[in-house]
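Now produce a polypeptide, keeping tokens residue-aligned:
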Amino acid sequence: MERQKPVQKESTGHKHQMQCTPFSVLSFSRKLDVGQPPSTGAFLEQKLERPTQFRKFYERGDFPLALEHDSRGSKIAWKVDLEKIDYHYYLPLFFEGLAETEHPYALFALNG
């Protein structure tokens, strides 16, 4: 095995800052900079490839609900009694709607 030598890092205002590869013996030294890991982008907003079934059903008007504006914000107004709703039909659609990020789809999916 070859010994790894630290590499001079470009000047960033720090005196004599050296950089080495991670998981090497040199990475335990105080005066050497290992550097930041590359970003995975896991927390960036991702666009949906195609519209969800929830969006299609809402735009078509299949959901028995409406958007009601109140002094405290927006909320959902159901057009039918909650006891008459077929949960086996609507619940999977609302779960799929949780992937939506645009208004009003996100509001309906979260509060529906």
Summary: DSSP finds three helices and five strands in the chain.
